[in-house]
Design brief:
alpha/beta; Aspartate Aminotransferase, domain 1; Aspartate Aminotransferase, domain 2; 7-stranded mixed sheet; 11 helices; 12 strands; about 15% strand; binds pyridoxal-5'-phosphate
Length: about 375
C-alpha cells in the first residue's frame, strides 16, 4: 500500500512571518449613526471622474496583458519627478516594492534595521526574505531615533528602512538629521525612505528627498498612489532609486504585476486637471488634521504629518478603541501602545473629537 500522503515541507523560516492585520471594517453603529472606517489611512474622497473614466476605458482591454514596462506611466512619472525613467520601478502598491527591496538586498540571516512602532509590513517583508528584523524603538516623542538606528547597524545589515512620515506616529524625519544619518550609514547598505504620506507633509517639515539621491546613491524612495491619490484598491506604487537599484527591483518584480487598469489610473491621476483637484483635497484633509489635532490636545502626538493622528495611550489604548467601536468608528489599535486614527470625513473627525473629549474628562475626574 502506498504510504499516506502528507503535507509538503515548507520553508522553516516561514514560521517567523507575522500575518498582516488589515484595517477592520467599521462595526454597525447605534441606529441612525453612520459607520466610518478610519483604520487604514485611506482617502475619504471617491475617485476623481477623470480617473474613473480612464479606468473604465482601460477595462475594455483587459483580455490583453498590460504593457510589461508600464512605459507611458513610467515616462510621465519620470517627467513629473525630474528623474531618468531608468531610475523608476513600479509595483502593485509600494508594499510590493518593500518586498522587492528586501529581496534584492538580503539573504538568509542578513539584518534589516527599522524603527518601531512603524509600518507593520516591515517585519513581514523582512521575514519573507529570510532576514532578521532589528527594531529600534522610537524616541519618547515618537520620532525615529536615528542615532540608535546607526548604532544598530552591524556587518550583517543589508537594508535600513526609514518611514517618514512614520506610520503610525505621524512624525517626519528632519532634513539635516536625515542627511547626517546618510553620511554615517555605510554606503554598501540600501536605505529605503518610505514616503507613503509625503503629499500630506506641511511646508515647514518637507524637503526635497529626491535631491539627496545624487549625493547618496544607496537611497531608494518609495511612494504610492494609495493614500493622497485615493487609489488604494488599484495597487500602484513606485520606487525612485539609482539606475542599478531600480533595475534590480524590476528584475525581481512580479511579471505584469501592475495592471493596465492601474497604469491608466496612474496616468490620469498625474494629468494636470486631476493634480489640481487632488491638491485641493489634500489641502482640505490637512485643514481637518489641524482641527483634530487642536481639539485632541495632549491626547495626540504633536505635529502629525500624514493623513492620520496617533494617540499614545499606552494601557488605556484598548479602552479608547472600544469607545470608538461602540460609536461605529473602526480605528487601528496597537495593544498597550496607542491608537491610530485616519483623518476622514468631517463627520468622522467630529465623532473622534467628541469621543476623545469625553475620554479625557473621564480620566481627568478619575
Ligand atoms: C500605506 C502604506 C504604504 C503603501 O501601501 P500600498 O498601498 O502598498 O502602496 C507603504 N508604507 C507605509 C508606511 C504605508 O502606511
Amino acid at each position: 500500500m502506498a504510504p499516506a500522503h502528507s503535507e509538503p515541507e515548507l520553508r522553516a523560516s516561514l514560521d517567523a512571518v507575522p500575518r498582516y492585520r488589515a484595517g477592520a471594517a467599521p462595526p454597525p453603529g447605534p441606529v441612525g449613526v453612520v459607520a466610518y472606517k478610519v483604520a487604514s489611512n485611506e482617502n475619504p474622497y471617491p475617485p476623481l471622474p477623470g480617473v474613473l473614466a480612464a479606468i473604465s476605458d482601460a477595462a475594455t482591454g483587459i483580455n490583453r496583458y498590460p504593457d510589461f514596462g508600464s512605459a507611458q506611466l513610467v515616462a510621465e512619472l519620470a517627467r513629473t519627478l525630474g528623474v531618468n525613467p531608468d531610475q523608476l520601478a513600479l509595483g502593485t502598491g509600494s508594499v510590493s516594492l518593500l518586498e522587492y527591496a528586501a529581496q534584492i538586498s538580503c539573504a538568509d540571516n542578513d539584518e534589516v534595521v527599522f524603527a518601531w512602532p512603524s509600518f507593520e509590513a516591515y517585519p513581514i517583508v523582512t521575514a519573507v526574505a529570510g532576514a532578521q528584523a532589528v527594531q529600534v524603538p522610537l524616541t519618547s516623542d515618537h520620532h525615529h531615533d536615528l542615532e540608535a538606528m546607526l548604532a544598530a547597524i552591524t556587518a550583517q545589515t543589508r537594508l535600513v528602512i526609514v518611514c517618514s512620515p512614520n506610520n503610525p506616529t505621524g512624525t517626519a524625519v528632519e532634513r539635516s538629521a536625515f542627511v547626517d544619518f546618510l553620511k554615517k550609514v555605510p554606503s554598501r547598505i540600501l536605505v529605503v525612505l518610505d514616503e507613503a504620506y509625503t503629499e500630506f507633509v506641511s511646508d515647514d517639515a518637507s524637503f526635497d528627498s529626491l535631491a539627496l539621491m545624487s549625493q547618496f546613491p544607496n537611497v531608494c524612495i518609495l511612494r504610492t498612489f494609495s493614500k493622497a491619490y485615493g487609489l488604494a484598491a488599484i495597487r500602484l506604487g513606485y520606487a525612485i532609486a539609482s539606475e542599478n537599484v531600480a533595475s534590480a527591483l524590476r528584475a525581481v518584480a512580479l511579471p505584469f504585476g501592475v495592471s493596465s487598469v492601474a497604469q491608466a489610473a496612474g496616468l490620469a491621476a498625474l494629468a494636470p486637471p486631476a493634480q489640481r483637484e487632488l491638491q485641493a483635497r489634500i489641502a482640505q484633509l490637512n485643514l481637518e488634521r489641524e482641527r483634530v489635532v487642536k481639539a485632541l490636545g495632549a491626547l495626540c502626538a504633536a505635529n502629525p504629518e500624514g493623513n492620520f493622528v496617533w494617540l499614545p495611550l499606552g494601557e488605556r489604548s484598548a479602552e479608547f478603541a472600544n469607545l470608538c467601536q461602540e460609536q461605529a468608528l473602526s480605528v487601528r489599535l496597537f495593544v498597550g501602545v496607542g491608537v491610530r486614527v485616519t483623518i476622514a470625513e468631517p463627520q468622522a473627525n467630529d465623532r473622534l473629537i467628541t469621543i476623545a473629549q469625553g475620554f479625557s474628562d473621564d480620566h481627568a475626574s478619575a
